[in-house]
Amino acid sequence: MDKVIIITGGSRGIGAATALLAARQGYRICINYHADDQAAQRVLAQVRELGAEAIAVRADASVEDEVISLFQRVDHELGPVTALVNNAGTIGQQSRVEEMSEFRLLKVMKTNVVGPMLCAKHALMRMSTRNGGKGGAIVNVSSVAARLGSPNEYVDYAASKGALDTFTLGLAKEVAGEGVRVNGVRPGYIFTDFHALSGDPDRVRKLEPGIPMGRGGQAQEVAEAILWLLSDKASYSTGSFLDLGGGR
Ligand code: NAP
User: Fold this and answer.
1) Cα gap 47→22, rounded to integer Å
2) Domains along the chain with CATH numbers
3) Which in 90, 97, 115, 188 has the greatest CB count within 10 A?
4) Which residues are in the Ketoreductase domain (predicted)?
5) What would the pLDDT profile of 119-138 be if each residue is shown by its tens digit?
6) Rg (the chain; Cα; Å)
């Protein structure tokens, strides 16, 4: 089967590393992104250099009209999607719950929970044998925060990833008999620009001493787990989670 992957938030960090690894593994690739055209074009050029057929599509992965257009472009330009990585995510400034605005809470939940649900919906409309598809695999990028709760920092973010994990479990069972596997990865502290959003760009370096393995993780180390879960090597895995937290 031809392998066609959609990576939401594929232009930077973990998503970009996933796109590069997917290129080496023979996927046709859609790099979705939200705002940073230059970053998307850079990753697009890199995956094409590796020989992959690829497109970059700007779309807010948490807005259904934009998700519909994204999937339609993939249908027309790359063929039916076989793999979805729900990677796009956001986080607010470190703070206590009393200080969190309604705007922030809605944004975190919409981006981290509703977006992956919408993208999964439109992937299943194409992948599920129930809908005439040939099957496929979905990986949701969660966080160890779902287990730890992130008190005094961002319990809203941790709760959004907890919701994403429950969605992974339920959806995996819902579509297990329809040729679609659904799994999750839970990264710990990974060196990406994500931490600037929470107000501390050097966060991973500062917290390294408290990580059992004594170091932060690299985006490629998460990408390896994502690509494994998507591959036929993980053919009996669904509703499962791989933690990539260096022991946290
Ligand atoms: P990152 O380097 O900040 O990259 C985020 C990516 O998501 C960018 O490509 C960004 O595109 C895109 N994006 C954000 N909102 C979007 C939206 N609404 N629609 C489409 N794309 C959107 O982040 P990262 O560290 O790679 O994080 C990726 C995922 O891993 C997130 O779900 C995050 O929660 C999770 N995670 C990260 C860590 C960590 O330590 N880094 C740990 C645990 C979990 P633009 O640049 O165009 O906005």
Assistant:
1) 8
2) 4-244 (3.40.50.720)
3) 115
4) 3-207
5) 999 999 999 999 999 999 99
6) 17
